[in-house]
Amino acid sequence: MNPTPKPLDAIRRVLHGKAPPPPIATLLGFTLKAIEPGRAVVAFEASERHANPLGTLHGGVLCDLADLAMGWAYAATVAEGESFTTLELKINFVRPVWESKLLAVARVVKGGRTVGLVECDVTDDQDRLVARASSTCMTLRGDAAKGR
Which one has a higher pLDDT value, 3 or 82? Predict the structure, then answer.
């Protein structure tokens, strides 16, 4: 059995309050609720402060929520000394949100040696689908992973 990859250890420190979350999570109010290799759950409470000019939750905030969850899910699969980058991000908005507790559940659908596919469902406090996102990620190794 392989040892737990170091990126997963770092994310678990965030989960247990032993390390600060990324600045974007703090800025927007995202909270990591669960992490395991290939899966992450992030919570968020949408309020009027996150509204677009029409009064509903801004799509960019929903995209940030899904992106963070998918990034953590993928990062939890890379080995020590590796990193990753997002090659593509897509989101479908299926229900408007005004004020609600949201849950983003991300999972690695297909992990490969270099490229992986991640999906995320965002649901509201009534367990209704609000958005579905997908991301293509590329694992970085060696010099490409340094400093990332």
Answer: 82
Distances (CA, A) of 58 to 23, 65, 102, 136: 19, 11, 13, 23
Q: Say if pTM beats, i.e. exceeds, 0.85.
A: yes
The Cα–Cα gap between 119 and 6 comes to: 23
Q: Is the pLDDT of residue 42 over 80?
A: yes
Decide which of 3.10.129.10, 1.10.10.10, 2.40.40.20, 2.40.50.730 is the CATH code for 6-145: 3.10.129.10
Rounded to an integer, what distance in angstroms lies between the CA atom of residue 31 and that of residue 16?
11
Judge contact between 42 and 30, C-beta under 8 A. Answer: yes
Ranges of H-type helices in 16-141: 23-28, 59-75
Count the helices and strands in the chain (H runs, E runs): 3, 6
Least Cα distance to 116 among 69, 65, 74 occurs for 74
pLDDT score of 142: 86
Q: Rg of the chain's alpha carbons, rounded to an integer? A: 15
What residues have CB less than 8 Å from 127, skipping those under 6 apart? none
Decide: 65 and 27 in contact? Cβ < 8 Å.
no
